[in-house]
Amino acid sequence: MIRRSLQQAADMIGPDATLSSSDIGEVIIHGVTIDSRKIQPGNLFIPFKGDKTDGHKYVEAAIQNGAAASFWQKDVPNPPEHLPLIFVSDPMTSIQNLAKSYRHELDIKVVGITGSNGKTSTKDITTNLLSLKYKVQKTEGNYNNHLGLPLTVLSLEEDTDVAVLEMGMSGRGEIDFLTKLAEPDVVVITNIGESHLQDLGSREGIAEAKLEILNGLKKQGRIVYFGDEPLLAERIPTFDKPDAAICSFGLEDKNSLYPFEIEESSTGSKFKINKSDKEFSLPILGKHNILNALAAMLVADYFDISYEKMDEGFQNLKLTNMRMELLEGQGGLKVINDAYNASPTSMRAAINVLQSLPGFKHKVLVLGDMLELGPDEATFHYEIGEEIDAAAIDYVFTFGELGKHIAQGAKTVFANERVQSFLDKSELIQELKKVVDGETAVLVKASRGMRLEEVVKALQ
Length: 460
Hints:
Elements: E1 3-5, H1 6-13, E2 18-19, E3 28-30, E4 32-33, E5 44-45, H2 59-64, E6 69-73, E7 85-88, H3 91-105, E8 109-114, H4 119-130, E9 136-138, H5 148-154, E10 162-166, H6 174-182, E11 186-189, H7 197-200, H8 203-210, E12 222-226, H9 230-233, E13 245-249, E14 259-265, E15 268-273, E16 279-282, H10 287-302, H11 307-314, E17 325-328, E18 334-338, H12 344-356, E19 362-368, H13 377-387, E20 395-399, H14 403-410, E21 419-422, H15 425-433, E22 440-445, H16 453-459
Parallel strand pairs: 4-5, 5-6, 6-7, 8-10, 8-11, 9-10, 11-12, 12-13, 18-22, 19-20, 19-22, 20-21
Antiparallel strand pairs: 1-3, 2-7, 14-15, 15-16, 17-18
């Protein structure tokens, strides 16, 4: 993580940054934090002035707990005179400037990953593959926005070889900012789904926003994208990056990298690719995760890791929590926890995993609201319901106001008693427990705001 003197940090931020006194310039900061409860010795504390609280109230406590210094927003009155402070006009802009300067000082390669679905899983798989040869750091948790990405950059060790950075967005211009800060050597676009239709209006609008990641790509970089998506396949070859190597992945054989002889099981998948004679074993569920693995393989290839060696990087792979996480429930019940987020694309993929999963006598879906889908949200939910295979699934339980539309769609193909809709989570859990046993697999999926991990915990 960043280790600089306060004077060096102020210089990296720019002329707006000034020290509270001339005798603190040699004080060394070691890392940054925005949470006064998580101070580590030597941290630079970054307080933010919000609508509900003001981080400046915690500056003194942060330094008492071991922080070396703190930002102080210039228009906030009564700065403590006895503490080491860096005065800035805007803490957000200043931490972004500090991160950009630090990124320029690092001798490091960067992988930038965006997409409507699969960003985090692709990040995790890519990190495993690159770790076969390099020291790698990745975005932790959901630190993938205008604040999270600078914090991630500032957490990078100076001897790190490769940083794998996730880039999220909710509107235009956000990924443009992130990619220009990170300046990636490789960019990955996992897919174009329906998330953020509420803000961007159409899948075409989403594609344009995701393509902003190309704006920060360094010269002689590599573009990795989902080639089965026409919105990407039509746009990327015409993008103004003539020196970039363009590689696509997908299920279709027109792509640079594609799989065949796919064999799915209750523990993962096996597959072959067109670039190697080797059979690969991926210990995570779902054909969509094979696609995420293909994207990661194209990144690893850029870093001179052979395809034959990559299967080693799949071993002991563990995705970030609540992404197709197979858990043991009560009495031998199996629960697939995919409750971190949801869109129609990812919902369909997860349902298909459960429908095709061998080895279970009973299968149950627990599906909640998919958020931020715009004016057609009810239709998206209804279509999910009516597409469920009633021959493969025993029961459908839904949660939330939008979940009602999934239930309505499901009732067009299921007998009514096999579909139940709830607005009370405790009632859902109570009824769900009546229909599951040790021979049952349950998929739990919804947008993060629905907190369906509470259902998962109740089944364990």
